[in-house]
Amino acid sequence: MAALRIWTAAIFAGWLCGCSATTPTGAETARLMQTSREWSKAAAAGNTEAVLAYFDESAVMISEGQPPVRGKKAIREYLAQTSMIPGFKIEWEPVEATVSGDLGYMIERTRITMNGPQGTPETQQMQALTVWRKQADGSWKNVVDMTASAAPSRT
Predict the structure, then answer these.
(1) Going from the N-terminus, what domains does the chain have, and what CATH number goes with each?
(2) Residue 133 contacts residue 103 (beta carbons within 8 Å)
(3) Residue in 33, 52, 34 with CA at minimum distance from that of residue 43
């Protein structure tokens, strides 16, 4: 019985070692974070078509206090509406990323600026959770983009 346990443990350990050879490396996580940074630059520049290129066809955007926006066509319309807001600008920076197989997610800090009631720019700090799917060509597409107000800092 002890020999069977040792043999089973050895097979399981070998399986785990084999799995670790196929799990994503830090390089893939860094690649996903760089993809997010490039996406942010396109958004900050107001390039709607470049921003759309990062979305999966079936992507969903979830924003605080708003109904979900589903699919690339609806996202295009949403982006067109936001581009008409006076002073609107959005940018973000990934804080951390996790990749497992063909899926990854990131936590990001987001800043949204638009003109306030007096016409002067006001910036809101946000937090985001994005979910990504790796494509057959190795690129990453956003499938879920969820943004909410950032909590105040604790002192």
Answers:
(1) 24-149 (3.10.450.50)
(2) yes
(3) 52
Place of tokens 């690649």: 31
- What distance in Å separates the CA atoms of residue 150 and residue 51, rounded to the nearest whole number? 23
Provide the b/e sequence for 74-86 (b: ≥16 CB within 10 Å). Answer: ebbeebeeeeeee
pLDDT tens per residue, range 82-131: 999 999 999 999 999 999 999 999 999 999 999 999 999 999 999 999 99
Structure tokens at 52: 């759309």
Give SS3 for 79.
Answer: helix
Query: Amino acid letter at 96?
Result: E
Phi/psi of residue 95, nearest 5 degrees = -100, -45
- 23/32 Cα distance (integer angstroms): 15
Tokens matching residue 38: 């490039």
CB 58 within 8 A of CB 86: no
Residues 6+ apart with CB under 8 A from 35: 54, 132, 139, 140
Alpha-carbon distance values, 68 to 63, 75, 100, 144 (Å)? 7, 10, 26, 10
